[in-house]
Amino acid sequence: MGKLVINKNQKSYIMKTLNFNFYKPVLAILLLMFTCSLAAQTAEQQEVIDDAALAKAAFTKNNPNMAELFANAEGYAIFPNVGKGAYIVGGAAGNGAVYEKGKLVGMAELKQIDIGLQIGGQAFRQVIFFQTQTELERFKQGNFELSGTASAVVLEEGKAKSIEFRDGIAIATMPKAGAMIEISVGGQKFEYESLE
């Protein structure tokens, strides 16, 4: 039997092919693991994004001022499901979607702790409008906190109210069910996660 002669180029090609074929299953497994973890996260985020679209529609339904704010603000964060509960020490929490000039750019998490005489619980929607790019960027840096004097306009179905910017921010809330007497937004803290 004759000796097989392989030149340098053929040897290089064979080694590359063997290495690639060896790593192909490993790469496929890693890709599958990454895709599965990404899909699980994306499903939760997609639910918040879908709920944010419904909340935006609810905000603008009977309030032309809100539609104008959504169209003209540099950005906004919509929290479609904020839950607030209290018994002496209270708190609120919710997840939201962040938009810059109408384009989805990230996700946010709202947290708040209140201390004082309070009993009960409620669910509401909340939107924060950013009048300037500077305010939006400050929010996107993470660890954003509303001042203790921050206040929100409470919108009720069928009743239009004027919403104005104060220190570059405008805040509106809307009850999900029943009446909402007052909502304290001062001291709310926000975390931001970019989707870009």
Shape: elongated
Tell how many strands the DSSP assignment holds: 6
Radius of gyration over alpha carbons? Answer: 25 Å
Q: Unreliable stretches, pLDDT < 50, 5 or more residues? A: 26-40
Report how far the terminal alpha carbons are from each other. Answer: 62 Å
What is the beta-strand fraction?
35-45%
Q: What structural class do helix, strand and pairing data support? A: alpha+beta
Counted by DSSP, the helix tally is 3
Q: Note the main sheet.
A: 6 strands, mixed
- What is the string of helix and strand elements? HHEEHEEEE
* Whole-number mean pLDDT: 78
* Helical amount: 25-40%
Features:
single chain, alpha+beta, elongated, 6-stranded mixed β-sheet, 3 helices, 36% helix, 196 residues, 6 strands
What does this structure look like?
There is one protein chain. The protein is 36% helix and 36% strand. It is of the alpha+beta class and 196 residues long. The chain has a domain at 60-194. Strands 1, 2, 3, 4, 5 and 6 form a 6-stranded mixed β-sheet that branches. A hairpin with a 2-residue loop joins strand 1 and strand 2 (103-130). Helix 1 runs antiparallel to helix 2 (64-72). The longest helix has 54 residues, at 8-61. The chain is elongated.
Per-chain topology:
Elements: H1 8-61, H2 64-72, E1 75-100, E2 103-130, H3 133-140, E3 144-145, E4 153-154, E5 169-175, E6 189-194
Parallel strand pairs: 4-5
Antiparallel strand pairs: 1-2, 2-5, 2-6, 3-6
Helix pairs in contact: 1-2
Short description:
The chain has three helices and six strands; from the N terminus they run H-H-E-E-H-E-E-E-E.
